[in-house]
Specification:
The protein has one domain: Alpha-Beta Complex (Spore Coat Polysaccharide Biosynthesis Protein SpsA, Chain A), CATH 3.90.550.10. 28% of the residues lie in helices and 23% in strands.
Amino acid sequence: MISAIVLAAGLSTRMGKSKPLLPFGSRTLITHIVEILRETPLDEILVITGHERAALEKLFVDSSAQTIFNSDYAAGEMLSSVQIGLQSASLQSSAALIVLGDQPALEASVVAQIISAFRDKRGSVVFPSYKMRRGHPILIAREHWPAILELRADQTLRDFFRGVSPDAIHHVSVNSPRITNAN
């Protein structure tokens, strides 16, 4: 089982508006992202909320996606949202796909490639890569979750990645420069 943790709790201070709630076609950016994830071999979708909690939760009332509130969202870093997502994921989950809530160009085919690489045991941390540049989403096997959960509030996921053996990391080469977010 693989869980998606969709990060949608941030304040969006640089943009001034909640990026996940921005219009995207006939829906919002966050509902667009969740719809793409539903087209993939994921078993669970967790949307981590914070800022604009009520508006985000309303979008998923009748949905298979579950919302989880991050009460520390105002701290400004996404680490607390990742940690809450890992703590909330199903006990049967063997990995979590960390998905940015502001990545409109997310492609189901890229997600499927990442999951396939993990299931083929090519790495316990799997990144998409375009022209040797890492992107998102990132898959992290359960064996690494304790190290992430132990990170302090003043740390980031980069601190975790620095401690991961290079042998555990796999880069899936994708033909899409759109693996970066909307920042």
